[in-house]
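Page 47, continued from p. 46.
Same chain as before, 73 aa.
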Amino acid sequence: MALPKWTDERTNQLTDFVGDEAPISQATVAEAADQLETSTRSISSKLRKMGYEVELASTATSRTFSEDQEATL
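Result:
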């Protein structure tokens, strides 16, 4: 499946959607991706190219192990 191209109309929809949120959270990125029918990676990349600060996906993920499990490891 090919991702849709970034037209001026789609870019305007994206900027309207994110508004003046700073930094833009991964939750907002996911909602925008659903609305614009594209990937979260595409949304994040486009926003960064436009000068927006976007939360890194790696910092937004939850921990795999609890503190007790990590201590056991």
